[in-house]
Amino acid sequence: MAKDDITKSFKFIGTRPNRPDGFEKVTGRAKYGADISAVGMLHGAVLRSPYAHARIKSINFEKAAKLDGVKAIITRDDFPKDREGEPLKLLENTIAGEIAYYDGHAIAAVAATSVFTAKEALKEIEVEYEVLPHVIDVDEAMKPDAPIVRENAGDFSVPEGSSPNVASYIEFGRGDIANGFDKADIVKSGLFKTEAAHQGYIEPHACMAQLDHNGQGEMWVCTQGHWYIRQMCSEVLGLEASKLCVTPSEIGGGFGGKTTIFIEPLALALSKKSGGRPVKIVMSRSEVLRATGPTASASMDVKIGMTKDGYLTAGCVEFRMQGGAFGGSPVSEALQCAFASYNMDAVHHIGFDVLANRPRAAAYRAPGSPMAAFAVESLIDEMCTDLNLDPIDVRLKNAVAEGSKSSYGPKFKKIGLIETLEATKEHPNYSIELGVNQGRGVAAGYWMNHGGETSVSVSLAEDGSVNVSVGTPDIGGSRASIALMTAETYGIPYDSVRVNILETGALGFNEPTHGSRATLASGKAVYEAANQTIAEMCTRVAKKWQIDPDAVYWENGYAKPAGPNAGDFSPISIKQIASEMDQTGGPIAGHHEASIRGVGHSFGVHIADVEVDPETGRVTVLRYLVAQDAGRAVHPSYVEGQFQGGAVQGIGWALNEEYVYGEDGCLQNAAFLDYRIPVASDLPNIDTIIVEVPNPDHPFGVRGVGETGIAPPLPALANAVAAATKVRLRSLPMSPTKVLKALKTGNDGC
Amino acid sequence: MAVNVYLWASLKKFTNDKDILKIEATTIGELVSVLRRDFPGLKPFLDSGISFAINGELSNPNSNETIPDEAEIYIMQKLKGG
Known about the structure:
heterodimer, A: alpha+beta, Aldehyde Oxidoreductase, domain 3, Aldehyde Oxidoreductase, domain 4, 3 domains, 7-stranded mixed beta sheet, 5-stranded mixed beta sheet, 20 helices, 26 strands, B: alpha+beta, Ubiquitin-like (UB roll), 2 helices, 29% strand
């Protein structure tokens, strides 16, 4: 099924070698965030607000400071007072100033000689609060009489007369909307809602930091982006960035949630206050759920027009997303993704980023796209049902292709949505007969992917093996895929390449592993750096042969004469060239630094088969298929894993996961026992189809594959449940309680 | 050389009610300078972190990047990936 315009035949790309980090991980030797320790290290603990919104009238830590073993206590007074803009928001979210804005907001932190002592000291800190009115729900927050989360929080974009809780506003579109709806045979609209969902990474946040009085420091941290950690901590604390060296640990999942700071500035400030002793902070699961960024909750109005033969004529959306007390919901990205899969002459998008008394939203795998897909793909499915049209055929009729103008403006280059839809339709899962109380749902999803700032180096070892140095932490197999691309470039075995993830002092700035960019961007940069070294090796061999460097070419790990006219020379291997480096001019290394271009847009299509128990409301996923355009699957096992992981997170979001708040605005389910992510026994095998429509702007045809897979599950599951029950649920999660209620009343009240 | 700049409609209040601007510029840096000079209300948007799509290609801002004549340029909020 590959539609291959890149004609190279690859030797290593597309194979499935062992993962380079596998041995360390299965033997427990891999070092994660909490695994580091140092001589003289202290343990940090954080006091958090028990209120959703409260003025901090006083903090008294005299008793805590007197406890044996307590070495430092910090409050907001220990941080700079002149921050503004985004650094001020980061600081406010890291530790409260005059006001605690959400349940779990950090108030103070302690460093002590043991974890036990640090936690005991927290109990001795006396905080006097004045409880303030709070608001949790996004629609409630936009009402005229809603409690104001933060005064004057709206930015330049907010229209006059908006709710004080609107932080930003966005609007865009094109075409004649009224005319578009006039052309339609059917126009439907609906309100759709999704709850906040956490990224659910297995490894809680952890770091160890050391900071001297002169502003020089080091940090070990589990993160998706250690340059971001350095930048944010420097801005919050007023440090000179180059004096802070940040080293990433292995990472037990991130999914976007580890692209920002939470405990890191606290550890640095505690270290400085304790005289420069290293301080380690490890979050509990409860702290992760209460105080780190989930994604936003959303309330979304959608209206779509369709002809009776299935062509989309117009679409409008208004998305309201709460991103916590400091803004930052992915409403912009959600709008960009909403109609991106379809050719539509008339589209209009409105979005509100809304404040609420919740932790600040962080990125979560294709931020915004899953909510948008839930709203738009559900409504399209309703229309297909009303018109008795095949849902894949309708999507094929409207699918964007190369040259299509995206719903948010820019034209697409080469993309693979049509190929993905065709592959989905041909798969056996689409024709398996269903039984009683069973239903099938189809949905598409989109993510634009990202290139970003990237810096790498490649160096030749003296035995002809290769070291690759990158700055993108490996959260999804990037060490394996980069090693494969390096091996392909040189023509040397995969095992002769070692990919290292370096600390911030060793390379230029690198954006995090986010936006599905690590394999695409670091891989492209490594290709350029490796070719620098190949050019240098060819030059040295040319000098040896006393011919022009252009008369030497590289193939399968050897420098060779370019043809009979170049001379009769035996090829020289990379091993020989490396062994002679010290005699031919010294070390051979290459670098590449750039804002990487050539991003390949990503589309996926999912099919879900479910069975709904009419007595309990439980939804069982019977079968699940993910088809997605990978451009080129460098290591197919990792690509399949990304597809499956996205699907599983989306299934959890669709069926069970939600933040449950009490009347007091406090989170009621801050543990995995109550915040119900799917486990293996909840799931069928996730079938995958890797569609390969190579990205023409990448040397190996790569597109990012990490994020798109989480967008279609929400509507695919909703469409399957609707098919099984003939009742449409327009709010997530579709928990048994909600499904049962909908079965009895005919709707879910949304 | 002139390029066509497309802005979100919500920014029209800063650009005399236009969401498509014809700008004389040969690089991204020049383009941003002209926008700052002619439409000062856009400053907080331009300062907030932006991405460009130049003839369909998404990228971070690079002030030295040359823009093809008659290029179609979309200015968007900076991408937050997961």
